[in-house]
Amino acid sequence: MEEKGRIGIPRALMFYRYFPLWRPFFEALGWEVIVSDRMNSKEKIIYFEDSCLPMKMLVTHAAQLKDKVDQLFIPRLVSVHRSSIMCPKFRGAPDIVRLAVEGTVPIIDETIDLQKGGNSFLESFLKIGERLGASRKESKEAFREAEVSSSKFQKGWMDRLNRLPTGQLFEMDIPTPQTTNDTQKVYPPPLRIAFVGHPYNLFDAGINKDTLALTKSLGMEIVTADLLSEDEIGRQLSDLSKDIYWSSGREIVGSLFHFLSDGADGVIFLTSFKCGIDALLQEFIKRRLKVHGRSAIPLLILSFDEHTGREGLTTRLEAFRDVVEQKKEFRD
Question: Is pLDDT larger for residue 303 or for residue 244?
Answer without folding.
Answer: 303
